[in-house]
Design a protein that fits this description.
heterodimer; A: 134 residues; mainly alpha; elongated; B: 57 residues
Amino acid sequence: MDRERIIVGERRAAAAIPACLFAWLLPGAGHLYLGRIGKGLVFLGAIGALFVLGVIMDAGLQMHLGFDDPLALLRSLAQMALGVPYFLARALGFEAGRVTSVTYEYGNTFTEVGGLLNVLVILDAYDVAVGRKR
Amino acid sequence: MASHLLALVVFSVLASVVFATLLRDDRKSRVRFALMTVGAFVLSAVVVGWLMYPFPS
C-alpha cells in the first residue's frame, strides 16, 4: 500500500514539470496535458482573449530586462509569463505598440494582467499534477 | 475598443472567469463567484473614478 502511494506520488511529481512548462508555453495547455479539458479551454480562451485584445489595443511588448527601470522590468516579466503568444506577437512585429493610441495603457494592462493570471494558472496546474486539487 | 466602460467590462469578465475557474470547483458556485467578481470590479472602478474626479490630472 505504501509502495503504491510512493509510485503514484512519483508519477504525479513527474507530471508536474511538463504540466508547468506547457502551462507557461500556452495558457491552459498544462491543464489540457493533465486531462482537465474544460478548465484548460477556459484558461486558453480567457487569457488568450486578454492578450489578443491587449495587442489589438496597441499594447507595447518591449522586452526590458535591466534594473534601471524596475517597473518596466516587472511589466516585461508579467507579459513574458504568457509564453509563446508573447514571443510570437513580438516576432510578428507587434513589439512596439503605439504610444500615441488612446488605448495604449489599456492594452498594456490587458497583456500584463493576462500574464499574471497565467502565473496563477501555472501554479494551479502544479497543484492539479501533484494531486492537491481536482 | 475606445469605450472606457466597454474595456472595463470586458476586462472584468475575462479576469473573473479565470478567478472563478481557479477558486471554485463546481459550475454553480463558479457562475455565482464570477458574477460577484465582475460586479465588484466594475462597481469599485466606477466608485474610485468618481472619487478621483475632483482631483486635477
